[in-house]
Amino acid sequence: MESEGSTGIFSKWRRYNLIEIPVFLDLCASGMTETVFSDLILYQTCRITLNETLTDTCNLLHNNSSSQAARDLEQLIQPRASYILLSKSLIEGILPAIFSLFLGPWSDRYGRKPILIAAFTGPFIRFVMLSILSVWNLNPWIYLIASIPRALLGGVCGLMLSIFCYISDITNDGNRAWRLACVENSLAAGLVVGTFLGPFIFQRFGYTTLFIAATFTSGLTLFNILFLIPESVKRQEPEHKWKNPFDVSLVKKLFQTATRKRPGLDRSTLWSCILILSLYVIAISGEINTGFLFANARLGWNVVQYSEVSAICTVLAIAGVSLGMKIFRRIGFSELSVALVGTISIFSGSMITAFTFKPWHMYLAGGCGVFSALLTPPIRSILSKSVPPADVGKVFSLTTSVESTLPLATNSLYTFLYAHYMPPYYPSPVYLLSGFIFLCILLLIVVLDRKNARTINPSVYTSLVEDVIN
Q1: Which residue, 16, 35, 129, 299, is the most exposed by fewest CB within 10 angstroms?
Q2: Same domain flag for 172 and 268
Q3: Checking phi first, is residue 295 left (phi over 0); if not, alpha (psi -120 to 50) or beta?
Q4: Is residue 239 part of a domain?
Q5: Residue range 111-153, pLDDT digits in tens
Q6: Where are the beta strands (DSSP E) in 39-120?
């Protein structure tokens, strides 16, 4: 719901300036680089593991990745590379997860624009540093230095927190799920464009040029945020300067919002939504960390082949969420029913991937997962509707913090499973674990739907601030 002070601003700006544009550009830059960055870590790990002068051997990873010699080489270097990629996830996850507990409540009071700027500045600095570091052949651990500034500026956790809070500010209960779906479509579309462009640039110009292109794209994103996206929250104390965002009292208020009993607060629904989103992030994060390694080892795919399939699957997901949100709601599906369809779809895709042994199986998995993106928008919408605008930042802070913290531990499990049971082990335990997680989500949604069906007269949620005043 729009804040009181932002109505006039948005009446002039909303039609021409959308948060989806910088979201698309940011994810385009990430899509261009993430798979290629994994390839860079693999290549440099190979170079260090064998010998710095044996570059011809390591070039097999690019020139003849399906050969037996390349697969033998991957068996040697992939376990080591997977731990480097895991360390990258830890760097970019721990601090942002902690910061988000403070930034959401702080932004409720002082506005969304500061955390938006910080969240979009982090990727820009990272790409600038990678553009410089990739000029030389370095120890693969050195490239993780570029992840530090992004972590200090909020990381992915801060990015998603700022976006979800911003969307909640400028929407109402009727159109929030659709706008959240549009944001997820922007995320997916950016990844599609990026995953097509990234390997194309890499094959023709190399790592450094690719990271320079990502820097330019990220710079356009930051310009958009700085000058074209208006503030969505009226500051409660406009005459005062910003106060310290890392005030422990902010975290105390955050937990009071989610745990203090008051009329209309259905804590079981609130925490069920948080659990569902957390489980989803655990599975998706684990699959992303090992996805390229799995396709490379199982099918002998190089970075271009994997990127092409990933892009096709993402296009299908965009079409699925765009059509699904309209069609299923029009025929009378509740938000939880739509989320259930998404869960069944993504469960099917993971199980097919677990049993993959031919290239067309990956396409089949993408087809079955066409409605996978329908899971999260309805759940986030239900979550945001459980609180008034004054408490949206607090709840999304708690949600993004939990979503970011859990994968830090569970990614280690995924890495362990992959490193010890990598192909030719069949079926893949990594995707079997994801299937089990999605099955748990399915059961949670069914239980939540049955519980809400028995709720006859839900009372109106009372904001923590209003509750204290009364």
Answers
A1: 16
A2: no
A3: alpha
A4: no
A5: 888 889 999 999 999 999 999 999 988 889 999 999 999 999 9
A6: none
